[in-house]
Amino acid sequence: MLTTLKRIVQEVNQIPGLENALERLVFLVKETMQVDACALYLADYKAQELVLKATEGFDKQAINTVKIGFNEGLIGLVGQREEPLNIENAQIHPRFKHFPEVKEESFFAFIGTPIIHQRKVLGVISMQQKSIRRFSEDEEAFLVTLATQIGLEIANAEMLGNNNSADDFSSVSQKTINGIPGSSGLALGIGVVQNVKYELSQIMVNKTDDPDEQIASYRHAVELTRAQVTHLSDGLSNTIPDDVKSIFQLYHQLLDANSLGREVEQKIREGWSAASALKLVVELYATRFKNMDDAYMQERAVDIVDLSNRILANILGASNATSAIDIAKDLKQGTILVAKEVTASMLAEFQHLNLQAIVSIQGSNNSHAAILARAMGVPAVMGLGTIPLSLLDGKELFVDGYSGQVVVSPEPQVKSEYQQLIDEEEALYRRIESESDAASVSQDNCEMTLLVNAGLSAEVEVTQYEQGAGVGLYRTEIPFMLRERFPSEQEQFELYRGLLSSCPNKEITMRTLDVGGDKPLPYFPIVEDNPFLGWRGIRMTLDHPDIFLVQVRAMLRASIGLTNLHILLPMISTLSEIDDAKRLIKQAFLEVKEEAIKRGEMLSKPAIGVMLEVPAVIFQLDQLAKRVDFFSVGTNDLTQYLLAVDRNNARVAGLYSSYHPSVLQALYHIIKTSERCNIPVTVCGELAGDPNGAVILMAMGYRKLSMNAHSLRKINWVIRNLVLSEIESLLPSILSCDSPSDVKSLVDSHLEAKGLGGLVRAGS
Ligand code: PEP
Ligand code: MG
């Protein structure tokens, strides 16, 4: 059954245009299951109806005309109850409703199942038989499994408005895509897809008006590919085994004009663009190969796709990526970086290209890419799901980092409205900016210490260290991620020295290497099933004292003659990790001190602290406090681990919230215990730089918050306009809320009432 299902889903997925695909789907289901009819209905929520979109066995005239209310008939019942319905004789069922257009008088057995995606019923698929019988368990299981597999495709096609015609994507009509807010702010610009790896699976098919030009482009791409393949095989010819050689021969055969080429050119003459024609032909071939019984032939499917991806790259070529930048220049617009997963190095590169916003197809609100975007004050939308990158490349985009929406090709009227919103936001932000130097003291004289989170994008932030009372968190991993090997002790020394000596009178908290999770090192791959629960942070560095000692030595050497170094240990979950890390720090300290003394220099002992980000340590705070000099609360990971929600997974992003009452209870416990133990505590997670979050933390008693430099000005503004005692009296209500949304609305309405609502929104 699984093979049949896979074959159907694969074949249907390759068909351009939702309606064509559904038509093929019902045909294949009817044939495979040997039933008398199969029908598929899609939900129209505005009209509260299920509309017949495809059928095989019933009258096709009824397509798009038969519309069944959710409270009507058996199809409506399946949609309403959100579960399968298997009935021997539909005609005597109390909910049976006759639709004469369908011509189903002679059908009795009925089985229907809802098509659901993310809790929403998108439609219903049914099979019917002329006899009176109950569908078997196998048949029911087949239909249910099929429905789960097609849900995502239907959801995507509907979201992109591709439910009518095959070439809908080539049009420039406005489309709205929903993602997750990653960094707030609004921006208009041209989407530039970065590091695009051209893959047929990513191509949305479209039509062309100029087949001759497309054929020429295809032939040119084939010639380029032929040269590349020859170059590759020549270069390897002495070293590769025969079976690999035979793959290159196959490549050459496929590139022959009489092979793939003929069919591709035929499709182009039918009106498809070169890339689309290649996709349509190749995917059909690949499916045929995959379905062959011979394992060798199945493997060849991979080769065909690989070769075709090379041809595709030559059709679209690097010229495509540069052309998007050119479009932006021509239109005098900024660029919007679009990537499957935005990385720190991409951002570094794009800073010089008038970067306006970021769109990351993968990732979520607390991925490091989003944190980085917030640090740079650049709006970002994350987790757009399975959107093809090509849909956004070179297109005008409006990015709404508040709601997580991306509008592709906004219409002129809509665009000028967006532009107005952007102007208003800029005006508000200038207001905040103009007072950013004033001290962070509330209306009722509570003084807050605001520190900067740094390190994520070393270049950008250098100028921002002067802000705030120091650096509350320097993420040392980013310089490691931007290189092709571990940085040497000397390289690290220079980096750390620059930071420590640029603000000798301010505390600088450097966190030891925290790689793993979603921060991989390209040259030190860690492959794990659950990276966030795996070899991350201190766990990795304690297993590699070589890496840890080099880093700590570099930090200590950089602090010679200074007194501002604080060392922070990430991902601590047991006390022994602190003991082990302290032992290594002591060893490095003694070595560096000896070297310093020889040169007549002074080395001061650094303060040592731990990140509170793994829930286990919250219950050992007393023991922890005896071992270290300070705590720093990492609310990003604390939230992830307390709620068991991957901070990087778009699918569960709705469950990730630092306003969750349990997270707030944990934070309250931490500050109360720290006060009792008399140990300084800072919050350095993203909650500290969020206006509502900062206000809640202040009410709990936190007085040191560390955040990105961009949020610092805004939080400063909020603090200076706030009466702390009022929020303190609100704290019991906040702590007894049932849900994160209740917490948010309670604090929102308080700030709104105090006239801080609009300002909180600006750049928040
Ligand atoms: C945190 O977990 O809150 C934190 C500040 O560290 P990072 O985001 O780098 O994991
Ligand atoms: Mg963390």
What can you tell me about this protein's structure?
By secondary structure, the chain is α/β, with parallel strands linked by helices. The chain has 26 helices and 22 strands. The strands form 3 sheets. It has an 8-stranded mixed β-sheet with strand order 7-14-13-9-10-11-12-8. Strands 21-20-19-18-17-16-15-22 form an 8-stranded parallel β-sheet, covered by helices on one side. 45% of the residues are buried. Bound molecules: phosphoenolpyruvate and magnesium ion. Phosphoenolpyruvate binds at residues 371, 473, 475, 514, 613, 634-637, 684-685.
Please give a quick description of this structure.
By secondary structure, this protein is an alpha/beta fold.
Global shape: globular
Which percent range describes the beta-strand content? 15-25%
- The separation of the N and C termini measures 51 Å
Radius of gyration: 30 Å
Largest sheet: 8 strands, mixed
- Say which molecules are bound, naming each kind only once: phosphoenolpyruvate, magnesium ion
Q: Percent helix among the residues?
A: 40-55%
User: What's the average pLDDT?
Assistant: 87
The number of helical runs is: 26
Number of E-type strands = 22
How are strands sequenced across the largest beta sheet?
Answer: 7-14-13-9-10-11-12-8
Low-pLDDT residue spans: 163-171
Q: Which structural class fits the helix and strand makeup?
A: alpha/beta
